[in-house]
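Office hours follow-up: a student asked to see two folded examples consecutively, so here they are.
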Amino acid sequence: MENPTRLARSRTDYMVGGVCGGLGKYLKIDPVFIRLLFLLITLAGGSGVLIYFILWIVMPREDKLETQQSNLDGPELGRRANLMGEEIGQVASQPNSRTIQFIGIGLVVAGLYYILQNLNIPWLNWMNSNLIWPVLLIVGGAFLLLRALKH
């Protein structure tokens, strides 16, 4: 059923809709990099979420590649949008444990950042919004590189 030459949402490597997992498999790169790219696009201007939802509708599910129409006419887009709504309901009612972990880590990091920023401690003045994101990107990239080297 898997066809690596076709772009499809992953049913095995997913956190929400399988878009990043499918893009990673299609492009033959780690989906973590795709997820980071969507995060950066979202933080830079907010369009990452919109792009993700559009891809969720347009990309067929990996297990439904053979049965879905190749042309995206009005009724097919409507059907896929309804399917996306059902999948969002499933994700909300039975979330992936990795998704919860990443959201939890993100909330803790964001909370710590804002607490430290509001404490007005002189030696923490380097933590401004112009520096924190590049520092987090460097730390995240170094972590991913170290992880990749260990395997």
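And the second, which I mentioned at the end of office hours:
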Amino acid sequence: MKRQRLYVNTSVWNFLFEELDLSKRAATERFFEHTSQFDLFISELVLQEIERCEEGRREQLYEKVRLHTPAVLVFNEGVESLASIYVTDGVVPERYRADALHIAFTTVYDLDAIVSWNLEHIVKTKTRRLVTSINVREGFKIIDFATPEEVI
């Protein structure tokens, strides 16, 4: 059976240090306990978002990234273009363009799913429907959207 190729967006890494929603933190920890079953990917965007964190948190996040060794995807014209389509077609508002970029990285790099705790713009029915429609129209495969607990 083919190993799933998962894009792990920044929210998942952050939930390893969540102090208020302990059930999501526990689910995230369980997800990372099983990552040897998957091929993990992040993007330059994830690294940029980590870089903007306060110093202590930033170092904790980098340590987790080093521990799990995801492949790092680079920005390219295809990612930027598809993210623009997602914004124009109403998948996410322009001010949340980073969310469109995370989805575009997953699509353009032909990954199986995006794993996220972003339930406002990424892991939700409307986003799944719109992205599926756009991806089919633009000649990309259909991707899946999941929270860490759905993956495991």
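Two things to take away from it. The longest strand covers residues 39-43. The first helix runs from residue 10 to 14.
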